[in-house]
From TrEMBL:
Residues 4-411 form the Ketosynthase family 3 (KS3) domain. This is 3-oxoacyl-[acyl-carrier-protein] synthase 2. It comes from Thalassorhabdus alkalitolerans. PROSITE patterns: KS3_1, KS3_2. SUPFAM superfamilies: Thiolase-like. One of its GO terms (molecular function) is 3-oxoacyl-[acyl-carrier-protein] synthase activity.
Amino acid sequence: MSDTPRVVITGMGTVNPMGNDLETTWENITAGKSGVGELTRLDKNDFPMKIAAEVKDFDPSDFMDKKEARKMDRFTQFAVASSLMALKDANLEITEEIAERTGVWIGSGIGGMETYEQQFRLFQKKGYRRVSPFFVPMMIPDMASGQVSIVTGAKGINSCTVTACASGTNSIGDAFKVIQRGDADIMITGGAEAPITSMAVAGFSTAKAITTSEDAETASRPFDKDRSGFVMGEGAGIVILESLESAQKRGAQIYAEIIGYGATGDAYHITAPAPEGEGGARAMTQAIKDSGLKPEQFQYMNAHGTSTPYNDKFETMALKQVFGDHAYNLAVSSTKSMTGHLLGAAGGIEAIFTIKAIKDGIIPPTINYDTPDPDCDLDYVPNESRKQDIEAALSNSLGFGGHNATIAFKRFEE
């Protein structure tokens, strides 16, 4: 429909293993640095996982009152900090005039796992009376959205998508559709996660999804033949989506335009991707169809690329299904090679990287790509970022439970 609002990105904010602001993060990403280091948030002697992509030197009191911060799980602190930075980047103050037309949609895969573990230990030792009255509101995954709404004054739709590792991408896609259907003018959206906790690490370790490599610099190696599992990360990535009319009315900067969204289910297995990535292929096809562009008009794909044996092979197969011969002309990179896997927040930061790639004409690399895998034979932008003109790009996220989500962006033109 010609009267469907165009939706643009006017602000971005992030806290992640590569940096605690947008500028530092992008500088490190384009330089091909690794955010992975020794596991410090837990006793590494207790787990086969020895390394992690941790957020470093984050002080929530830089963004919020210390008393309020104590009522938030770490994942919510990341979300609030990133949202405030995104609003500042967008030069946007949520006044009473626009509050009811401004919504929040922030996803999280597992929410306040750290709070859950701390409070359960208290319960075991001292009984129910010692459990914090803030336990439930700190733990539930929707509280990132809830707290961001409270802190910013956004009174529009307030929601949270929980689709495992697709949570951030689904949330951005869902927020995009809210503006398209006319239910809001502005959305604060993305993903947040703080999963480096005893039970989360224990569960992923027994599922044999996490790498046991002790070489922090080279452990995350998507699409490489010697990949051995993902590296767990933490953080948040938030973008400000705005109707073009709203952005132009206030003279906002515009990074890029969001033009398509696809979401599908595998109906196959709780953890393994569907054979040949057929569910992911359908999500990509949907996003491309929704964008109104042809597959060959896309130059870049920020892949899910987890550094696990099945994901990287099947995602490559899915790209070939969707793009045909053009798959070999498509630049494909996995920024998880540097950030690790932020689970529900992955789609948030990877949307930011995709948008910045379009805006700056720089494609982030897949680092640690040393030994080609015959099953993964596309252009993975190995080891060094690449200057390239990008008209349109996609970002993929695939989650446990068979959740597949793809969002499409293009360079903004009047």
